[in-house]
Design a protein that fits this description.
The protein has 320 residues and is α/β, with parallel strands linked by helices. The protein is 43% helix and 19% strand. The strands form two sheets. Strands 3-2-1-4-5 form a five-stranded mixed sheet, sandwiched between helices. A five-stranded mixed sheet has the order 8-7-6-9-10. The chain is globular and about 65 Å long. The structure holds 5'-O-[(R)-(carboxyoxy)(hydroxy)phosphoryl]adenosine (KG4). 5'-O-[(R)-(carboxyoxy)(hydroxy)phosphoryl]adenosine binds next to helix 6 and helix 7.
């Protein structure tokens, strides 16, 4: 009886692409649960992600995440009528755990799994089930694994415009933070230290990249690491706040320049960001300031990093 009264689908989503084990449930057109169990603490001692360790943690945590999500959403396993999971991109050994879990549940419930591209899910992680999306829009996805700009024409028509040729911006945050002994993940640590009045170290001979198609962070990362190492060798005082702030200012400006360029080039009236670096306070502040005449789609901070809610949201949108 309960079943037939239900308005819409009950969608379960699984995300295990990196070091976060996450299960989300959309029920009756709203996000009913989003459980994220991170293994970041374990990875801290290695200064970055160890794939085998991440995969083992997914195995340990996936049933726990599933049970917690089920309880939070207050659903019976038989209520689930759609299952989506991240199938690409990510660490192969980590993705495998989510894939096996998805296929096992599908076998049990006689369902077909929906394969979701993790990056496309980040693009729509801002969506709140209500607002109308103003297509086409430009989307920046910036995380530890990718820094890419897309032209989004519809939920299914997504064109990659540009991506970093080397390091992802989050990776630079993490490596610089490690060199400054700030721990992992480095992004939030550097972001917290940021002081707009201490951004005077010019690591790069900053060139104007407005019309420059190349997108690269390794030069900036190397310049900052060299600066730190040579200061250490010369036994000079290391001003962590000035280094962190100057790096962040330049890195975020590099992202903003690309956003200016592509929103103009494609005459878009809307912009979205996603991925772990989308939680960055300077990036969010500058986007709100410089793009105030456009529709700005910012995900909740909790939905910037890896999470299954965005997998569920994207699966919901493409099957609407
Ligand atoms: O999307 P995500 O959780 O995982 C993947 O990389 O797939 O992103 C993690 C990255 C890390 O590099 C982390 O340092 C960075 O996002 N990050 C930030 C902030 N919060 C997380 N970077 C800059 N500012 C932040 N507030």
């Amino acid at each position: 009886m309960q079943q037939s009264l239900r308005k819409r689908k009950c969608l379960l989503a699984i995300e295990t692409s990196c070091d976060d084990t996450s299960i989300a449930i959309i029920n009756n057109d709203q996000l009913a649960a989003n459980i994220v169990i991170s293994s970041a603490d374990e990875q801290t001692k290695y200064g970055g992600i160890v794939p085998e360790l991440a995969a083992r943690k997914h195995e340990d945590n996936i049933i726990k995440a599933f049970k917690l999500a089920q309880t939070k959403a207050n659903i019976d396993i038989n209520d689930i009528d759609m299952i989506a999971y991240t199938n690409y991109p990510g660490l192969r050994v980590s993705l495998n755990v989510g894939e096996i879990f998805a296929y096992t549940l599908c076998l049990l419930l006689k369902l077909e799994p929906i394969k979701i591209n993790h990056i496309y899910a980040h693009i729509f992680s801002f969506w709140d089930f209500k607002s109308k999306i103003n297509f086409p829009f430009i989307s920046l996805i910036a995380s530890g694994g990718t820094t890419s700009i897309f032209l989004v024409k519809s939920v299914k028509d997504i064109i990659l415009l540009n991506e970093t040729q080397d390091d992802a911006i989050g990776e630079c945050y993490d490596k610089i933070a490690r060199e400054l002994d700030l721990g992992y993940p480095g992004g939030p640590k550097i972001d917290k230290l940021y002081d707009s009045k201490q951004t005077n170290i010019n690591f790069l001979m900053q060139k104007n990249t407005h019309n420059d198609k190349s997108f690269s962070f390794s030069g900036l990362k190397t310049a900052v690491l060299n600066y730190i190492n040579s200061s250490k060798m010369k036994k000079q005082n290391i001003d962590i706040v000035a280094i962190a702030s100057s790096f962040q200012k330049i890195a975020i400006n590099m992202l903003l320049e690309k956003l200016f360029f592509y929103t103009k080039q494609y005459q878009c009236q809307a912009i979205s960001i996603g991925g772990g670096v989308a939680a960055n306070s300077l990036l969010r502040q500058e986007i709100r300031h410089y793009f105030k005449n456009m529709d700005i789609y910012l995900p909740d901070i909790a939905l910037c990093g890896d999470n299954a809610a965005m997998i569920a949201i994207y699966a919901y949108l493409i099957t609407k």
